[in-house]
Amino acid sequence: MFASRTNWRLETNRLTRALEEHRRSGKKLFDLTTSNPTTCGFAYPEREILAALTDSRGLVYRPESKGLGEAREAVAEYYAGRVGFSVSPQQVDPEHILLASGTSEAYSHIFRLLCEAGDEILVPAPSYPLFEFLADLADIHLVPYPLLYDHGWQIDFPTLRGALTPRSRAVLIVHPNNPTGSFVKPREAAELAEICAAREMAIVADEVFLDYAGTAQPAQTFALCDAALTFTLSGLSKISLLPQMKLAWTIVSGPETIVQTAIDRLEIIADTYLSPSTPVQLALPKLLSLRHTLQAQLQRRISANLIALDSGLRESNSLARLDREGGWYAILRIPVTSTDDEVTIALLERCSVLVHPGHFFNFSREGFLVLSLITPEAQFKEGVWRLLTQIDS
């Protein structure tokens, strides 16, 4: 009765069952996996956010296949003054922007644009597991290419090139990566563009964490990349800490000869799914303008939690934190005495600490745990102390 594309394993795994049992027990949980900023104790400018949603024009349905012009202009303004991977200075053209109800919808549109059933998209490993479900729903295959760790993360280009087949349609990059926090370097971006341009493939760049660099130097953006057909995705979820507003965008860049064709086809796909919420589109300029104070709070949280984590690790003989350049996560390398799942379940059952096992993010081997750095500080500090005490004992 049901399509094979949704034939996922639906039974609960051991970690999920252990977490459900812990919650039934009523014991306090030190959750070091939380990624929902709206539940992490940040001070939101509530009046300004709510006021932005009261525009009376939102009472009228104005479908625009690309999204409302003023909303797309606000997105273009967000990129003003940024440095891209292009050879010459550029600006984002509002006519090259298409709005969507979240990056998942944007991915769906791009996959439908580029791929026939059974085609392939190259994706980084480690990376976020959502891509697997999006690929299943689009009837395409994901082919992993490794990110290697050696005094920082880098793309394994020999393996990436070896993974290319006649059915390869795009290389997906996450910039910075989730969870490694690594940015694509200029030389890597140039090599990616060379590969994709030569094989008539596209770059799909997920930049939802772009604003969260670990240094004061702004990161370069793929939205200003002209060497190969490029689709750059971002949205309100991470930029303004507003995942509930459900508004994201795709920026199309690259050689002029194919950019307009891509936009024309994407516009029809977007029109088929209808426009995102009108009130949120009208509020977008204000919601983007509020990002500075919200991001400042989150960056302070990340810094404080990193200090707490590194302080604890100085007393540890068996754990180490991998280098990161940005994003919201930290990766711990732990002794491989059992599987990451078993370590995670033991931490939950013995000291009420919840972390992600490395395989959740498609690490190629055991020995890694992933922690969210936006966890409230007191909870994070106590959770880290319990984790270190348990693993070092």
- Which ranges are low-confidence, i.e. pLDDT below 50, for 5 or more consecutive residues? none
- Main pleated-sheet profile: 8 strands, mixed
Residues in β-strands, percent: 15-25%
How many strands in all?
Answer: 14
Distance between the termini: 52 Å
Q: Which bin fits the share of residues in helices?
A: 25-40%
Rg, Cα atoms, Å:
21 Å
Which structural category do the helix and sheet elements fall into?
A: alpha/beta
**Average pLDDT:** 95
Morphology call? globular
Identify the strand order in the major beta sheet: 2-9-8-7-6-3-4-5
Question: Topology as H/E string?
Answer: HEHHEHEHEEHEHEEHEHHHEEHEEEH
Number of helices: 13
What does this structure look like?
The chain is of the alpha/beta class and 393 residues long. It has helices at 14-25, 46-52, 69-78, 103-114, 130-137, 157-163, 186-198, 236-239, 256-273, 278-289, 291-313, 340-351, 377-392, and strands spanning 30-31, 97-100, 120-125, 141-149, 153-155, 168-174, 202-206, 230-235, 248-253, 320-321, 329-333, 353-354, 356-357, 368-372. An 8-stranded mixed sheet has the order 2-9-8-7-6-3-4-5, with helices on both faces. Strands 10-11-14-13 form a 4-stranded antiparallel sheet. It has a two-stranded parallel sheet with strand order 1-12. Helix 5 (130-137) links the parallel strand 3 and strand 4 (141-149). The longest helix has 23 residues, at 291-313.
